[in-house]
Amino acid sequence: MNENQTEVVKVAKQRWRSMMARCYNPAVIQKYPSYADCRVHIGWHNIENFVAWFVDNYYELPIKYVHKEPVCVDKDILIRGNRIYSSDTCLLVPQTINTLFRPHRKRWKYPLGVSYNEKEGAYSSRFSINGKIVARADGFPNPEDAFAFYKKHKEAYIKQVADKYQSHIPQKLYDALYAWEVEITD
Hey, where are the domains in the chain? Predict the structure, then answer.
């Protein structure tokens, strides 16, 4: 095994420990309750099975993107709402892509990207990238219309990122990104 392969196996073992902790460590589940009902397929309880899958599916991005950008084991880009980590449901995903699907705040009474302006009696919508607002509109009569604005911009951005990474990620991931639909319950 060469030095690069040894490093990939080391990363795989770290990812396996993290995955198992998210699913089975009460302290981790208490801190991140969204993992409370997640499970790991029985075949992946054996670390060697997981490492073999990881090594077979591992890839690195060219330096022009992000040098040594970590890959994450993602269970729910292929299957929305999936709760089981397995070779059939998971992909290795660059961290930049994986973070596209994490809400940046806790849920509150309005959908993502939507707020209510009491002074104007109308809803606003904004879409941000890395904390910078890139699209904003005001005066929506209801949260659903405001969310439609957010959804349009978020889905377009996901496709833009997919296109940027297309030649360096698995086709299965690219296709999943292009098919992704932002839902009002996200």
Answer: 3-100, 103-186
